[in-house]
Structures are given as structure tokens and as C-alpha cells.
Specification:
This protein is α/β, with parallel strands linked by helices. The chain is about 40% helix and about 20% strand. The chain starts with a strand and ends with a helix. The mean pLDDT is about 95. The chain binds nicotinamide-adenine-dinucleotide (NAD).
């Protein structure tokens, strides 16, 4: 079999800092577990704008379409705030998602026991939490037409359109059911079928897909506003949450807070299978480029490292090694080694980005 290919786009701000630690971990898996990747690197976001005048060069886009997976750091920064909308660093990211047709965004919200006290909720509500939000990523309100700011009777009116086809709902529902089968076998689908026609269609199609091909998975439906409330009331009732682009944006941020820190949250965005059976895929931490801590060695590399663990599991079928890496991160936290974002005010000296990487690699060594 060919060596799987991985395109690394470190991006801006702390992106390159956290990605340096991921690259060390990729090297570790090559040396110690014989998991080798054909690794290439390129620019995205502000870094691509500085070099090419665009946030994503066409050649980089073409490369992303060819590789088995893309690993992205973060994009953006104050330096680019005044750029035209079409040139902003985030447009590079959106172009990758759109052109690779990455319609299923997977955001796990897992609360490591050592960090339960960092959650804004009580320890017993979040400790042991392990849920997965599957958010539709390429359609709905953020893409639907008509959109824009128009004039009506001399007054401005802002319009966005919530639009879903049944095929778009069908394919993301299948992703959620497939995932549920590998986890707790439960899917809760969230929409607003009480007030939105797109929500009625969403509920109908999810039910049809379930009845046709996934009747073994437990399916429930919930209005998204109730879902938000239930997420903070009793999040452990959920396994996989399936929802649309707009509600998913909000619900996944809400779930993120349950786990305590932005520096710990990975994500995967998956598309249709390629010829070799692997889904088109991009893996990235949930956090942004954190310009406030850039260049200070303060960034927590865990979210980016855990994103690579997701790549091992979902793109490369190395679930065992993904678990090995996740457990190494968990053990490091349990041992008390923490970056500054995970320290209480009187917690002592925080680990730097590279010291956190050192500690995770030491735990990986110990796992052999
Ligand atoms: P942010 O996620 O960059 O930072 C929010 C806060 O969390 C900051 O205080 C930051 O220091 C902290 N933080 C984030 N990641 C951390 C880590 N790994 N370790 C320790 N602390 C961490 O969000 P923001 O400040 O709203 O945005 C900054 C820039 O990033 C903006 O230009 C924004 O557009 C961009 N952004 C990019 C992405 C992405 O690339 N996917 C996502 C969100 C924001």
C-alpha cells in the first residue's frame, strides 16, 4: 500500500507553534510505530496572503484535493483585519472546506478527569463526559441564497437563507449514524421543526435514513433550543448530536465550554470517500490563532495534537494508535504538567508549548 499523504498547513499566529509539536509526534509514530506519512507543507491564511496576495493559492488547493488528509493549525490575526472580505485569512479556510466538500464537521467534547474543575459546570455534571457533535458544514444559513443587504422602501434589510436539500441532510445523517455505531450507538438530531420548514424536512430525512439503514442505532429528536439547555443541564445524556450548520456552530461552542479549555479541543471535517475509500478530510484545532499569546511559548499544543489523533482514527484506520496518543495527553494532564491556559492562579510554573510536547512524547515512549 502507498504511504498515506498528509498536507500540513500551519497557518498564522500560534498555528506554526502548535504544529511544530504535532510534527514531532508524527516523527515519533514513524520511528517507533512504523506509521509513516508522506508529509508536505504549505501556506494558508495570512501567511499565504503575505506570500501570494491570496489566503489560499490555487496550487495549495489542488494539493489539498489530492492528499489523504489535511492538518491545519489556525488562521487570522489583527494584521489582516482591514483586508477586503474576500482576502481575509478565514476565506482560505472556508475555501478548503467548500471545495473539498467537507460536509460533516466532527467536534468531540470530552472532559478529561484532570480538567473537570476547569469546566464552568460542576465536576459531577461533566466528569467522564464524552460526546460528539456532528455539524453539517457546507450548506444551510451560511451559504443559502438569496443573501445580502438590500434596500426595501428606502430601508436596509439583511437576508440570509436557511436552505437544505434532502441529499445534504441524508449524507450528514449517515455520517452521524456510522459514528454512533462506533461509540455509544445513540444519535440525537436537533433542529427547529416547530417553526422552520427546513427543520421539518431535516427531521423527516433523518428519520427515513434511520429506518432504511440504521434502525439498530437509537435515534431521538430535540428542538435545538431545548438541546442547548439540555447540554448544560445534563450533557452526559448525549452520545452523538447531529445538527445543521447554524445550530451546530452554537451548540458545539456551548459543548466546548463544558470541557474547560479551548486549547484542548480538536475537530475533524469529513467529505465523501475518495477512490481509495478514505473520506476527504481536514483536521484542525477548534481554537484560532491566539495573537495575544503568539511567540511566547504559551500555546497549548494539545488541541492540534488531538486533531492528529482524530486523523489516525478517521483517515488512517489506526484507532489503537489514536487511543495511545489520547491517553498520553490524558496522562500528562493527570501528572500535573499543564500549559498556562490550564493552570489555576497559584498553580506554579506552567509548561511551555515544547515542554508539553516533550511530556506527551515521554508518555508515548512509556506506552510501548
Ligand atoms: P482564539 O481561539 O484565537 O483565542 C481565544 C482565547 O483563547 C485567547 O485568549 C487565546 O490566547 C486563548 N487560546 C486559544 N487557543 C489557545 C491555545 N492553544 N493555548 C492556549 N490558549 C489558547 O480566538 P480569537 O481571539 O477570537 O481569534 C483570534 C484570531 O483567530 C482571529 O483572527 C480569528 O478570526 C481567528 N480564528 C481562527 C480560527 C481558525 O483558524 N479555525 C478559529 C477562530 C478564530
Amino acid at each position: 500500500m502507498n504511504t498515506p499523504s498528509l498536507l500540513v498547513l500551519a497557518g498564522d499566529g500560534i498555528g506554526p507553534e502548535v504544529m511544530d509539536e504535532v510534527k514531532r509526534i508524527i516523527t515519533w509514530f514513524g520511528d517507533k510505530r512504523d506509521l509513516r506519512f508522506d508529509l508536505s507543507e504549505d501556506l494558508v491564511g495570512g501567511a499565504a496572503y503575505d506570500a501570494h496576495g491570496v489566503p489560499l493559492h490555487d496550487d495549495t488547493m489542488a494539493k489539498a484535493q489530492e492528499v489523504d488528509a489535511v492538518l491545519l493549525g489556525a488562521v487570522g490575526g489583527p494584521k489582516y483585519d482591514d483586508l477586503d472580505f474576500s482576502l481575509k485569512p478565514e476565506r482560505g479556510l472556508l475555501r478548503l472546506r467548500k471545495e473539498m466538500d467537507l460536509f460533516a464537521n466532527l467536534r468531540p467534547a470530552q472532559c478529561f478527569d484532570a480538567l473537570a474543575d476547569f469546566s464552568s459546570l460542576k465536576r459531577d455534571i461533566v466528569s467522564g463526559l464524552d460526546i460528539m457533535i456532528v455539524r453539517e458544514l457546507t450548506s444551510g444559513s451560511y451559504f443559502g441564497e438569496p443573501r445580502g443587504i438590500f434596500e426595501e422602501n428606502g430601508k436596509r434589510v439583511g437576508i440570509n437563507t436557511q436552505r437544505y436539500t434532502e441529499d445534504e441532510i441524508d449524507r450528514v445523517a449517515r455520517s452521524a449514524f456510522e459514528l454512533a455505531r462506533k461509540r455509544g450507538n445513540k444519535v440525537c438530531s436537533m433542529e427547529k421543526a416547530n417553526v422552520m420548514e427546513s427543520g421539518i424536512l431535516w427531521r423527516d430525512v433523518v428519520t427515513e435514513v434511520h429506518q432504511a439503514d440504521y434502525a439498530d442505532v437509537e435515534l431521538s429528536h430535540m428542538y435545538a433550543d431545548n438541546g442547548a439547555m439540555q447540554l448544560v443541564r445534563n450533557p452526559k445524556q448525549f452520545d452523538v448530536i447531529l445538527t445543521d450548520n447554524l445550530f451546530g456552530d452554537i451548540l458545539s461552542d456551548c459543548a466546548a465550554m463544558l470541557t474547560g479549555s479551548l486549547g484542548m479541543l480538536p475537530s475533524a471535517s469529513l467529505g465523501l470517500p475518495m477512490e481509495n475509500g478514505r473520506p476527504k478530510a481536514m483536521y484542525e484545532p477548534v481554537h484560532g490563532s491566539a495573537p495575544d499569546i503568539m511567540g511566547k511559548g504559551l500555546a497549548n499544543p494539545s488541541a492540534c495534537i488531538l486533531s492528529f489523533a482524530m486523523a489516525l482514527r478517521y483517515s488512517f484506520d489506526h484507532g489503537e494508535d489514536a487511543t495511545r496518543l489520547e491517553q498520553a495527553v490524558e496522562k500528562v494532564l493527570a501528572s500535573g504538567v499543564r500549559t498556562a491556559d490550564l493552570m489555576q492562579a497559584d498553580g506554579g510554573k506552567p509548561a511551555s508549548t515544547s515542554e508539553m510536547g516533550d511530556a506527551i512524547i515521554a508518555e508515548l515512549d512509556a506506552s510501548l
